[in-house]
Design a protein that fits this description.
The protein is an all-alpha fold and 186 residues long. The protein is built from eight helices and no strands. Helix 3 packs antiparallel against helix 7 and helix 5 runs antiparallel to helix 7. The chain starts with a helix and ends with a helix.
């Protein structure tokens, strides 16, 4: 390498060797520059994809959380229908059995914990919703037939159901869940 930095030799044979060595050295330098550039581009791509993956996980629901929200949406709708039927004077015993099944489902959905991959805000929002449906489910499950005959009790539970529905709408908005598609599945 030091010999290449010197002046060009005068003799023809030495000059050819010197030129060949110089070309090889320039070729190697060019290859190293290309490899370095490709490695820098690849490392930038991996870094960006890693950040995007983390962002996606923080802003989107896991499949288990999504399933719980969708299932609880249908269960709360069914509970709402049954409570409205009770208010309109349907059979208390039959409706009580249905409500016990549905409220146990709500309580079991509410007992799960949000995914750790979500952001802190997303975890708090989802955890609040889970606690809300768990408490509602356990309270609804403990109702007696006498309490279900009381219109005031039913209206309080319907008011609580509207609060749960408002929480669902906030969740749908925050996690970009298509409520219209869920309504079509009903």
């Amino acid at each position: 390498m030091n010999t290449l930095k010197k002046k060009r030799p005068k003799k023809k044979i030495i000059k050819k060797r010197w030129m060949r060595a110089k070309r090889l050295l320039e070729k190697k330098k060019k290859q190293q520059r290309v490899r370095g550039f490709v490695l820098i581009i690849l490392s930038i791509l991996f870094l960006v994809s890693g950040f995007y993956t983390r962002y996606y996980e923080m802003t989107n629901l896991s499949s288990s959380d999504g399933n719980i929200i969708v299932q609880s949406y249908f269960v709360t709708d069914e509970v709402n229908k049954n409570l409205n039927n009770l208010q309109n004077g349907s059979n208390v015993e039959d409706t009580k059995k249905k409500l016990m099944e549905l409220s146990s489902l709500l309580a079991s959905y509410g007992s799960s914990t949000p995914s750790n991959s979500l952001s802190k805000k997303g975890q708090q929002t989802l955890n609040r919703y889970y606690v809300q449906i768990r408490d509602y489910g356990t309270n609804l499950y403990s109702l007696t037939a006498l309490q279900l005959n009381n219109q005031e009790t039913i209206s309080k539970y319907l008011d609580d159901m509207t609060r749960i529905n408002q929480s669902q709408k906030k969740l749908f908005k925050e996690f970009s869940i298509n409520e219209a598609a869920l309504k079509q599945k009903k």
